[in-house]
Design a protein that fits this description.
Its main location: membrane. By secondary structure, this protein is of the alpha+beta class. The chain is built from 26 helices and eleven strands. Among the domains are: 134 residues, Alpha-Beta Plaits; 372 residues, no CATH class.
Length: 840
């Protein structure tokens, strides 16, 4: 990853018709160029290679059907060891025919399997119906049946002489309808039978022991076998229609027990035969799918590449002879040699008589931005590009973000123990990254953490460093070098006695007494402050001043980086009219505040610390132009502050009017200078610098030929006024914004201390024999809360605040982020619809 984006150039590719496909294929494998659309006015359905794209979409449809069948059978699709290249055009029809034959074969086998399963289910239902209805017919009374008998026939008196009922004398015959219905529909089915048939039916039903699949939907449901007895054909027709409305599965009812036994024997034989045939069909289907799964991944990649190649060919235009395709591409200048080599290889594979070649052409269009990165820097580059893609050849904040982002995070997350845990977790992901990359887990949250493993590693390492500076490890201090404060000196100098210890709950060590304080602690904060009552007040003052110092240095660094862009784009007037006023305004006010902080630390010792004035009061008096009543921090302070305020105030009109007036003079009073300047620029700079100069000439109101363009002074002045107001007010608000470093650092330390006091300390205070055993669950609770609250929640909060400081307070000082990202034609970057659907 460099400090600037790659130098780009616009090039024309002249591709022979016979080898264009192979040349584009080679470019897709290498990922060197970004193609431009030379047919913007032509719709997608009117382009030359529409039929080839439709053929690829048809193959994608077949592959989707194939992968769904493979997934349905729980067959794994192995990845190809060597990624296949795009198939040659002459082999496309062969792949298409192979896929179509496979689709026809699979569809026929699947239909046969479905038909066999349907027949088997029907026979199984018929068997259950015959078995259960036999109990209905052989029951001695209706109440002895397994299912309730909902209704009875109306009164049918039997004549004593003939022994016939009134329905028999009318010629009505007793009929039966039997079948199966879903359990949830039984109550409504009973109610409908009663209302429609007026009681001329008898319904008996019983639930089937096992769950059966529905013939139409395939869902597993509980079913009920029913038997309806009725008199007369008209009643039978009504019952038939009601059964159809409720989607009942009807089966013929045998007239006697002998017929029932014959049918059941026949059904057993047929079911056994169907199961054998179905088993063989399933085995054959699995064999076909296993064989297809071995090539499925290769087919998917080949079709994806082939479709992408034809999409690119649709972006090209044909010459007048239709023998050559012309394409325009953006390409890094450093990759032009590889581009020519790829075209030569494509021409060789396509057996072209005339080789394809590349021609670099000048352009006034703004090139896309390409910043090369690796697996370590890609995460930090993503943080920068989330704010905005940099302009072409603009200085990138990413190299500095490698250090400043994890450092600012660690200032808010400073804890040695938490930093070690974060470092170990990220280090494990780094060491096992090959395995995780190969598995490609589908959990989005896990992928987010895994993609940012190097960011987490840097944040963990910096947190270890700041934890050592804060001397904080799970809210406890480490006494590595021994405290620089001594209690013995207070007794030897007769300041304390045993009576003093007994009568005072709190005691103060006096550093003015010799040997009480021997000097600063070698690394970080002295561990004795962890025992002090005024520890929080001390850390408040320390971390607040530290946050202001870091913030001013960070913002000043961002302003200084703007000079790199001004020099590169040959905008030297901005150095004098923008950079210097901005830097003076920032340093004269807030740089002076940092100076007062360091001066107070160095000028006042423990003896005269009570006489030290308040920096905040002096800083406020500086803006109010007063301060005679307060004690000065150093001799001549009032004069220095007046001078700095005057310089800061004078830099504001320079920022506001300098650039608009200079551009106005350049367009109306500096014509001869402009022409000479344009001539020298064309003569002396390279082609790349010329393209960047043209872009920024347009900002200044100059055309690429040195001629004047329309210049609107009001528009330029308005933009500069907005920038000036934003910068001046932003210096105040941004400096205050860095106080979040102090606030989150204290919050993290206090949460860590509360968690230790409320959980771990309770377990350590247990003195019974069970105390050792109780330490295990107590430590488990402490570990879970530490990871979930302090590492995850607090870590995410510190990450977001560090992100905000970089985007708003740092990057807006020099980074515009309004460019267009370079998107090369690369097969490895193309999305796969089957992976998105979870089929691969």
């Amino acid at each position: 990853m460099g400090f600037r984006s790659e130098e780009m150039c616009l090039a024309q590719l002249f591709l022979q018709s016979g080898s264009a496909y192979d040349c584009i294929s080679e470019l897709g494998e290498m990922g060197l160029v970004e193609f431009r659309d030379l047919n913007p006015s032509v719709s997608a359905f009117q382009r030359r290679f529409v039929s080839e794209i439709k053929r690829c979409e048809e193959m994608e449809r077949i592959l989707g059907y194939l992968l769904r069948e493979i997934k349905k059978e729980n067959i794994a699709v192995p990845e190809a060891e060597d990624l296949p290249a795009a198939p040659a055009p002459k082999n496309v029809l062969e792949i298409m025919e192979q896929l179509q034959r496979l689709e026809v074969e699979l569809s026929e086998v699947a239909k046969n399997k479905e038909k066999l399963e349907r027949n088997l289910l029907e026979l199984t239902e018929y068997t259950h119906m015959l078995r259960i209805t036999r109990t209905f017919m052989h029951s001695r009374s209706r109440h002895e049946a397994l299912g309730p008998q909902y209704e009875e026939f109306p009164t049918l008196d039997t004549e004593s002489v003939t022994g016939c009922t009134s329905m028999q004398r009318l010629g009505a015959k007793l009929g039966f309808i039997s079948g199966l219905i879903q359990r949830v529909k039984v109550e409504a089915f009973e109610r409908m039978l009663w209302r429609v048939c007026k009681g001329y039916t008898i319904l008996s039903y019983a639930e089937v022991d096992e769950s059966l699949a529905d013939l139409d939907t395939g869902e597993i449901n509980k079913s009920v076998v029913f038997l309806i007895s009725f008199w007369g054909e008209q009643i039978g027709q009504k019952v038939q229609k009601i059964c159809d409305c409720y989607h009942c599965h009807l089966y013929p009812h045998p007239e006697n027990d002998e017929e029932r036994a014959d049918i059941m024997d026949s059904l057993r034989t047929r079911i056994q035969d169907l199961q054998n045939v179905l088993h063989r069909t399933e085995d054959y289907l699995k064999q076909v799918l296993h064989k297809a799964s071995e090539s499925a991944h290769s087919w998917v990649l080949q079709v994806k590449k082939m479709k992408a190649i034809y999409h690119i060919l649709n972006l090209c235009s044909f010459d007048v002879t239709n023998k050559c395709l012309i394409a325009e591409v953006w390409c890094p200048v450093s990759d032009l040699t590889n581009l020519r080599r790829a075209l030569e290889e494509g021409s060789r594979k396509g057996d072209a008589t005339v080789p394809s070649f590349v021609n670099r052409i000048p352009s006034n269009d703004t090139p896309p931005t390409l910043l090369r990165s690796n697996k370590f820097t890609s995460g930090f580059q993503s943080i920068v590009e989330a704010y905005g893609v940099g302009d072409y050849r603009e200085a990138s904040p990413a190299p500095y973000t490698l250090i400043t982002f994890p450092f600012l995070f660690a200032v808010m997350f400073g804890d040695l123990g938490h930093g070690v845990v974060m470092t170990l977790c990220s280090l494990w992901m780094v060491l096992t990254e090959k395995d995780h990359t190969r598995r490609r887990p589908g959990n989005e949250i896990w992928r987010t953490f895994f993609d940012g493993r190097y960011i987490m590693l840097m944040m963990g390492l910096f947190s270890i460093y700041t934890g050592l500076i804060y001397n904080d490890c799970f809210s406890k201090s480490l006494n590595i070098f021994g405290s620089s404060w001594s209690v013995n000196a207070m007794f030897t100098e007769q300041q304390w006695s045993n009576e003093t210890l007994q009568t005072n709950a709190l005691l103060t060590l006096d550093p003015n007494i010799s040997a009480v304080f021997s000097g600063p602690y070698p690394l970080g904060i002295d561990p004795i402050w962890n025992m002090a009552v005024n520890r929080l007040a001390f850390l408040n003052s320390y971390k607040m001043k530290m946050s202001v110092i870091i913030g001013v240095i960070h913002m000043s660094f961002g302003v200084v980086l703007s000079v790199i862009n001004y020099i590169h784009f040959r905008q030297k007037f901005k150095i004098y009219l923008l950079f210097l006023p901005e830097l003076l305004f920032l340093l004269c006010l807030f740089g002076y505040l940092v100076f007062m902080i360091f001066y107070k630390w160095l000028a006042f010792s423990a003896r005269d610390s009570r006489l030290a004035p308040s920096i905040l009061i002096h800083f406020i008096n500086m803006f109010l132009m007063q301060g005679n009543d307060s004690t000065p921090l150093y001799p001549g302070q009032m004069g220095v502050q007046m001078f700095l305020m005057v310089v800061a105030l004078l830099s504001v009109p320079v920022m506001l009017l300098g650039k608009p007036l200079y551009l106005y003079w350049l367009h109306h009073g500096g014509k001869s200078l402009r022409v000479h300047r344009g001539y020298e620029r064309v003569r002396r700079v390279s082609e790349e610098d010329l393209s960047t100069s043209i872009v920024h000439d347009e900002e200044e109101g100059l055309s690429d030929s040195g001629g004047p363009q329309e210049f609107d002074f009001g528009d330029v002045f308005l933009h500069q006024a907005i920038h000036t107001i934003e910068f001046c007010l932003g210096c105040i608000s941004n400096t205050a914004s860095y106080l979040r470093l102090w606030a989150l650092s204290l919050a993290h330390a206090q949460l860590s201390e509360v968690l230790w006091a409320m959980v771990m300390r309770l377990g350590l205070r247990m003195t019974s024999k069970l105390g050792v055993l109780l330490l295990v669950p107590v430590f488990g609770v402490f570990a879970v809360l530490t990871v979930s609250i302090l590492l995850v929640m607090e870590g995410l909060s510190a990450f977001l605040h560090a992100l905000r400081l970089h985007w708003v307070e740092f990057q807006n000082k020099f980074y515009s982020g309004t460019g267009v990202k370079f998107c090369p034609f690369d097969f490895s970057l193309l999305p796969c619809v089957f992976e998105q659907d979870g089929l691969l």
